[in-house]
Each structure stands twice: as structure tokens, then as C-alpha cells.
From TrEMBL, chain A:
Residues 122-215 form the Acyl-CoA oxidase/dehydrogenase middle domain. Its cofactor is FAD. The lineage of its organism: Bacteria, Bacillati, Actinomycetota, Actinomycetes, Pseudonocardiales. Keywords: FAD, Flavoprotein, Oxidoreductase. This is Acyl-CoA dehydrogenase. Residues 11-118 form the Acyl-CoA dehydrogenase/oxidase N-terminal domain. Belongs to the acyl-CoA dehydrogenase family. It comes from the Bacteria.
Length: 363, 341
């Protein structure tokens, strides 16, 4: 397999690299109010350089970059130690859904401000009684004049503590479980919305509970058909589990840092684990490059999700074992890595998907 | 895969489905089915250009075929002969290629004695490798090499001392070859003793041949691991306990799902193995993936896997034998540790 890059991709790579070298600086945690605004400002600067959403069409602020170019962008982005993407829920989860199921009006109204970080999106899938079993969700949207009224409670909503808007599934009936759900967009500052931040294990509110008490949503913020929400949401769920959420660049960069760390703190007892983790990052890269013509989606994305989330934990655990207690630079990443096997559909759910839909094992 | 490679895969798979009988083959004096090998050569699984009597297949096609042979554990001298073909082509010597490659294309077994160049990514001899030394002036070779693929059967014998590549007539008195009994009955190995063996220098030894060999072996390992998992999945769909197929129990499902993740990523690593680093990555990753799948195959089958009649032990033994072949994962991991990133 030939992994060499064509000339236009090399040119793009050089542009990204030099722009990042000139602009990257450390920011405060995006899970604090000031840090969130710093990250929003960073998104604006990326957008001004047309680097915030490179894979999107040019009319919405992108560059029509190929998947290969996007992977290259991600490798450069993480190698440069650039900030986490506060707009991630919007650009990687909602946007693909709008491209697939939204209207022209929705795309032109929503995507440009998303690309600039002017509107930051939170996700509102889970509910207290509907986690892995998402189809048991109970929040409702009731028809009213000109739109819908939302009632219920969402939880584990990433970025919701400081974000502007959110997307999620609501029960519009008739039918049970996967039937009668509708994909809706709502304003987190609308009347009737109460956001209660939840502190994560690092002490900062990376997610929140959302209480909805007759929150009005106009008809124009329904994505796809009424009652077709499950299909609309699931058709792009692979984006979250698969490549776009966690590209190989993230792990290649972490593996590179781990190797550097080993050089400074060589502990022969840990050498094999360091190389194993590095091999894991290489294997993930080769796996995604190998899948360029046929990117993992649907059940195949579950394979990717299990792989990267466990690799992330292994990388960080190895770094911590190398450093012992003096590992502040890795500690936060390690704490965050613990959430990888849980968010975007727990790895247990992914294993069910792999077993039943790829291996054909009985339910 | 290209349409041609898919066609090749299907042709090899269907041939093996019809004619590969591993248990019968390992009972034969040479440990492989000669008729089947002749048919495989006819299909064109060896990486030999048409000008030298081959099918025009390349390394990629050979890897496709090796993955199929791996699936069924079919013993055949493909890995050994393919490595020799690549080593000969790498010399660029038309006379030598013209003399030896057509014979290999016709199925003559060929093998290479080479240092499993494990100490450095370049060319330092390995700790566990036989000391094959050269008396350059007389081109005579001395030394003993263990674990030589098809070493006692080969009619064409190449030897590398880590610096040069030589052709050695295996029939001469200075060459003594002994079949090595192996735990993995599906792999033919031998010890080759060279005592003042006269040798013709063909050219410099290229470490590319090591990388090609590692990539080829990785493809075979992936095929075997994939098949071991398929057999396990099939078994758990049919074995009923507590009134249900055991494959419906989540405790088992999740183990098989993890194995699927491993096999798919191992396949990517094997396919991408093109240079020193990626070939070493593939050898480590695919060896360990196959160890894991074969071990789980035994556990998920339960008692039946502990019987001689069941094939699980053949996969398990192949996993461990091929893990050691051309250097263990630890050896290549150490090599990577010195060269990373």
C-alpha cells in the first residue's frame, strides 16, 4: 500500500504546519467560563484561516478537503499541540447530520456560524433513565402553534455548561422506543431551559444536565421528518464513534510524546509497553489509511471506537507508570481517557454491535 | 484489493476448499501435498515475472495467496520459495534469474538461509542466529542455521551471511540438512549445516528481503487468525447450553468482538507493511494478534479444543510457531525500540 502524499496534499500539509506553528498557544481549560471563550476565539482564528472545517464545502467555510487531507490536517493539528475543539459536537456530529438530512435553509443558516465558533453546540442525547438504552428516552416534544414544546430532562450533555445551542432526540409519538422520535435543535438560553453543570472527575464542568420546561422550538429547527429521528441520528452516529471524533493524529502525537518521555526517563521494565502503545497508534493510522476509500461507518465504526478508546487509556497509563507521581502534564489526559470507553456509546454496546452485526452472533 | 487480486483470492480459496487436507498432508514424507502445490503454482501464486516463466504476480499477490494458505493452515513451500524469488530478483542478475526462477515457477522448492537480522534495523547479526561466516576469497561457507523453512526439501538453496547473497548447491558433501521435528506440524523446518560449502556469490544481501519476508509472514498470520475467529464464531452459534446458542451470551460475544477488532487492525498492519518500520510493526502486531485469537479459540471452544481431532490446536501451534519464525515479537519490538520514531 502506498502511503505517500500527492503534491497538493503536501502543499496543504505545509500550509497547515506553518500556520499552526505561528498561532498555537496554550489555552485555559475549555470547561471553565473564561477558557470556553478562549477556545471560541481560537475557533474564530481557525475559521479566518479557513482551517476550522477543512472537509466541508467551500460555501460553508470549508475547503472540500478529501478524507486523506483531513487526516493529514488532524496529524498536523495534534502534532502541534493545538487546542481541543470546543466546536466538536457541532462540526463532527450535527454538521454531518445536516449535510445528510437537513434542508438548504438549515445548512446556510446554521453551518457558517458553527464553523466560526459563533454558535457552539452541545449534544443532548442521554437522559437519566436512557443511557446505553437510548431508545428508552422519555423527553417529549408536543405540537404547538408554529412549532414544538420540549419537556423533560437530558444529561451528560458535553459542553452544555457554556454552549449556545443543542441538538437531541425527543418523543413526538406515536409508537414506542425507536419509533416516534424526532431530531430537534434548541436554544440553551431559551425560556424554560435550566442548565445545571456537572463537575467531572477533573473538577471542571465538562458536561451538564438540561431541564426543559415547555421550551419552544420553531418548525424550522426540526431535522429530517417528524418521527424519523432515530434513523436521522443513527445514520451519522458512526461519525462520532469512528474517525472524525478521534483521528489517528491525536494518538500519533500522544505516542510521540510517550516515546520522548521514555527517552528522558528510560525504565527498561516499561520499554515494551511504550513500544506496544506506539505500535498501537501506528496500527490505528494504517487502519484508517487503509480504509480511505471505504471509511468505517455503521457497525465498522464500532471497531474503530473500541480500538482508539482503549489505546488512549493504554498510552496514558504507560506514561503515568513512567513518571510515577510527577505526571501533571499527562494526568488530565489520563483522567479524560477514562471516559473514552464510555462516551459515544459504551464499548460494551460497541461490542454488542460488532458481535451481532459484523459477526452475526445471535441476540 | 484489485479485481485481479480478488479473482486470485477466490481461485486459491476454492482450490484449497476442494483439495486441502491438512491432516493428510502432514502425514506425507515431505509434509505437504505435492499435487496441490503444483496446482497453486499453475494459478500463479509465486512472485515471478512472465519473462522468467512466472505468472507476473508480485509480492502483493503472493501475500493474498499466503493469507489464504494461512486460513486453512495448508502446508506448502510458498513462503520459502517466494522469499527466494524476491531475493533473486533483487540481485538484478539476469543470468541467475533466468536459470533459477523458471524452475521455482514450476514448483521446485527453494529456500533461503538468512540471518534473522534482529539486533539492529540495519545488518547486525542476531543473538540467536547461527553464525554463518564467509571465507570471501574461496567463497566457502561455514556455519549452522536452524529453523530453515523447507530446508531439507529445497533443491535450490540460497545463503546470506548478512553481507552477501550466495547460491549453494545443496547436494554437495559440505551441506548437511536435517528435518527438525516441530510442534507446529503444518510447518516444515530443518537445520542446515555448512562445512566449507562452496558457494557462488550472487550479489550484496539486501535487508529489504527481511522486510518482504516479515510482510509475507504477517499476511499468512492474518489469514490464520481470521479463520480461527470465523471457526470460533460458527461454533458458538451452534453449541447450545441453557437452551440457547452460547454465542448469544454477552460474556462470549464481547470476547469475540474484541478479537474482531484485533484481526481487522492486524490486517491493516499487514497490508501496509512496505518498509523496515512497517514490516517490523506488522510482524509484532500480527504475531500477537494471532496468539490472542488462537488462545481464545481454544477457550471459547471448551473441552473439544483440547482434543487431537479438533483443529484448534493446529491454529494454536501455528500461532506460536510463526510468532518465533524470523524473530519473535520481542526481538522486533526491541529493534523498533531502538529506531522509534
Amino acid at each position: 500500500m502506498d502511503l505517500s502524499l500527492d503534491s497538493s496534499t503536501l502543499e496543504f500539509q505545509a500550509e497547515v504546519r506553518s500556520w499552526l506553528a505561528a498561532h498555537v498557544r496554550p489555552l485555559s481549560s475549555m470547561d471553565t467560563a473564561p477558557g470556553f471563550e478562549e477556545h471560541r476565539e481560537w475557533e474564530r482564528r481557525l475559521a479566518a484561516a479557513r482551517l476550522s472545517v477543512v472537509s466541508w464545502p467551500a460555501e460553508f467555510g470549508g475547503r472540500d478537503a478529501s478524507l486523506l487531507q483531513w487526516l493529514v490536517f488532524e496529524e498536523e493539528y495534534h502534532a502541534a499541540g493545538a487546542p481541543g475543539r470546543v466546536s466538536q459536537n457541532g462540526i463532527f456530529l450535527l454538521a454531518p447530520t445536516l449535510f445528510a438530512h437537513g434542508t438548504e435553509e438549515q445548512r446556510s443558516r446554521i453551518l457558517p456560524s458553527m464553523a466560526r465558533g459563533d454558535e457552539v453546540w452541545a449534544q443532548a442525547w442521554s437522559e437519566p433513565e436512557a443511557g446505553s438504552d437510548l431508545a428508552s428516552l422519555r423527553s417529549t416534544a408536543v405540537r404547538c402553534d408554529g412549532g414544538w414544546l420540549l419537556r423533560g430532562q437530558k444529561t451528560w450533555s458535553s459542553r452544555a455548561a457554556f454552549a449556545d445551542r443543542a441538538f437531541g432526540l425527543f418523543r413526538t409519538g406515536p409508537g414506542e422506543r425507536h419509533r416516534g422520535l424526532t431530531y430537534l435543535l434548541f436554544d440553551l438560553r431559551a425560556e424554560g431551559v435550566t442548565v445545571r453543570p456537572i463537575n467531572q472527575l477533573d473538577g471542571e464542568p465538562g458536561f451538564a444536565e438540561i431541564f426543559l420546561d415547555d421550551v419552544f422550538v420553531p418548525d424550522r429547527d426540526v431535522v429530517g421528518e417528524i418521527g424519523d429521528g432515530w434513523r436521522v441520528a443513527m445514520s451519522t452516529a458512526g461519525n462520532e464513534r469512528g474517525l472524525t471524533l478521534r483521528s489517528p493524529g491525536r494518538f500519533l502525537a500522544a505516542a510521540g510524546r510517550l516515546v520522548e518521555l521514555y527517552r528522558k526517563n528510560p525504565d527498561p521494565a516499561l520499554r515494551d509497553r511504550v513500544v506496544d502503545a506506539w505500535i498501537g497508534a501506528q496500527a490505528y493510522r494504517l487502519h484508517t489509511f487503509g480504509a480511505l476509500s471505504n471509511p468505517p461507518s455503521g457497525p465498522a465504526a464500532s471497531v474503530t471506537k473500541v480500538f482508539w478508546s482503549e489505546l488512549d487509556v493504554a498510552l496514558h497509563e504507560t506514561a503515568l507508570d513512567l513518571l510515577g507521581e510527577g505526571a501533571p502534564g499527562w494526568r488530565d489526559g489520563w483522567l479524560f481517557s477514562l471516559s473514552g470507553p464510555i462516551y459515544a456509546g459504551t464499548n460494551e454496546i460497541q461490542r454488542n454491535v460488532i458481535a451481532e452485526r459484523l459477526l452475526g452472533l445471535p441476540r | 484489493m484489485t479485481p485481479e487480486q480478488l479473482a486470485l483470492r477466490d481461485a486459491v480459496r476454492s482450490l484449497l476448499d476442494k483439495h486441502s487436507d491438512v491432516r493428510a498432508a502432514i502425514e506425507t514424507p515431505h509434509g505437504y501435498d505435492k499435487d496441490l502445490w503444483a496446482r497453486l503454482c499453475d494459478i500463479g501464486v509465486l512472485p515471478i515475472p512472465e519473462q522468467y516463466g512466472g505468472s507476473g504476480a508480485g509480492q502483493e499477490e503472493t501475500r493474498v495467496a499466503l493469507e489464504e494458505l494461512g486460513r486453512t493452515l495448508t502446508p506448502a513451500p510458498l513462503l520459502s520459495s517466494a522469499i527466494v524469488a524476491q531475493a533473486l530478483l533483487a540481485t538484478g542478475d539476469e543470468e541467475v534469474c533466468g536459470r533459477l526462477l523458471p524452475r521455482i515457477a514450476d514448483g521446485t522448492v527453494a529456500t533461503l538461509v538468512w540471518p534473522w537480522d534482529t539486533a539492529e534495523i540495519t545488518t547486525t547479526p542476531a543473538l540467536d542466529h547461527p553464525e554463518v561466516t564467509t571465507t570471501v576469497a574461496t567463497a566457502s561457507l561455514d556455519g549452522t542455521s536452524r529453523y530453515v523453512l523447507d530446508g531439507d526439501l529445497a533443491e535450490i538453496l540460497l545463503v546470506s551471511d548478512g553481507t552477501s547473497l550466495y547460491e549453494v548447491d545443496p547436494g554437495q558433501p559440505g551441506v548437511i540438512r536435517e528435518h527438525t521435528p516441530t510442534m507446529d506440524l503444518t510447518r516444515r523446518l530443518a537445520t542446515v549445516h555448512l562445512t566449507g560449502a562452496s558457494a557462488t556469490r550472487l550479489g550484496p544481501w539486501s535487508s529489504r528481503i527481511r522486510d518482504i519476508a516479515l510482510a509475507a509472514l504477517s499476511a499468512e498470520q492474518v489469514g490464520a487468525a481470521a479463520r480461527a475467529l470465523e471457526l470460533t464464531v460458527e461454533y458458538t452459534k451452534t453449541r447450545v447450553q441453557f437452551g440457547k446458542p452460547i454465542g448469544s451470551f454477552q460474556a462470549l460475544k464481547h470476547r469475540m468482538a474484541d478479537l474482531h477488532v484485533l484481526v481487522e487492525t492486524a490486517r491493516s498492519a499487514a497490508l501496509a507493511a512496505t518498509d523496515e518500520k512497517s514490516a517490523a510493526v506488522a510482524k509484532v502486531y500480527c504475531s500477537e494478534a494471532f496468539f490472542k485469537v488462537a488462545a481464545e479459540m481454544v477457550q471459547l471452544h471448551g473441552g473439544i479444543a483440547i482434543t487431537w481431532e479438533h483443529d484448534a490446536h493446529l491454529y494454536f501451534k501455528r500461532a506460536h510457531g510463526s510468532g518465533q519464525l524470523f524473530g519473535s515479537p520481542q526481538v522486533h519490538l526491541a529493534r523498533l525500540a531502538r529506531s522509534v520514531p
